[in-house]
Amino acid sequence: MPNLDNQTIQLALVAAVALAMLIQAIVLFAALIALRKLAKSIRQEIDDLRSSVMPLIENTRNLLARVAPKIEQTASDLALLTRALRNQTADVQAAADEIIGRAQLQARRVDSMLSNVLDAVDRAGSFMADTVTKPMRQLSAFLASAKAVIESLRSTQGASRAEANRASGDNDLFV
After folding, report:
1. CA distance 86 to 169
2. How far apart, in whole angstroms, are the C-alpha atoms of residue 40 and residue 34?
3. What residues contact 8, with CB distance under 8 A and at least 6 apart?
4. pLDDT, tens digit, for every residue of 64-108?
5. Tell me: the pLDDT tens digits for 116-147?
6. Is the torsion defined by CA of 50, 55, 59, 65 positive or negative?
7. How many whole angstroms separate alpha carbon 109 and alpha carbon 115?
8. Rounded Cα gap, residues 70 and 87, in angstroms
């Protein structure tokens, strides 16, 4: 075995470290080249994407620039329309409330008038019933008494004739 002294070991270690650093430098150089290629391809992809998206963005900006005043005008018109509709709704509600109040008042007046008319008709009917029925009862009583007088006068003359027509053995038999 060769003589291993301190200097030889240090030289071997320095050579190993130098070899490791050389390998590390080669790996880092290869990573750098790969990253450059990757950055270049990403840049190309971004440029392609930018070239396809930028016209769309420009068109959208132009569209928004043209439409923005119209949108603002439409929004303000909608706000005015909403305000006008609220005012008109409030007016219609007030008018409807007033009409309903007047209709209820008129309904109460008509109800009161009809109640008064029906009460007057009821009183007139009662008065007429009393006025007509009292004399009618008196007339009916007078006619009943006259009829009774006539019947009694007729029955005295009719009783003698009925006895003469009756047979002697008939005794009120009906055949």
Report:
1. 111
2. 10
3. 2
4. 888 888 888 999 999 999 999 999 999 999 999 999 999 999 999
5. 999 999 898 888 888 888 888 888 888 999 99
6. positive
7. 10
8. 25
Residue burial 58-76, b: 16+ Cβ < 10 Å; e: rest: eeeeeeeeeeeeeeeeeee
Angstrom distances, CA of residue 140 to CA of 104, 134, 150, 153, 165: 51, 10, 15, 20, 35
Select from 133, 136, 137 the least CA-distant residue to 125: 133
What is the number of alpha carbons within 13 Å of residue 24 lying toward its C-beta?
Answer: 6
pLDDT at 173 over 60: no
Question: If DSSP states are collapsed to H, E and C, what string results for the chain?
Answer: CCCCCHHHHHHHHHHHHHHHHHHHHHHHHHHHHHHHHHHHHHHHHHHHHHHHHHHHHHHHHHHHHHHHHHHHHHHHHHHHHHHHHHHHHHHHHHHHHHHHHHHHHHHHHHHHHHHHHHHHHHHHHHHHHHHHHHHHHHHHHHHHHHHHHHHHHHHHHHHHHHHHHCCCCCCCCCC
Q: Which residues contact 2 (CB under 8 A, 6 or more apart)?
A: 8
Q: Which residue's structure tokens are 């027509």?
A: 165
Give pLDDT, residue 163: 56
* Cα radius of gyration rounded to whole Å, the chain: 66
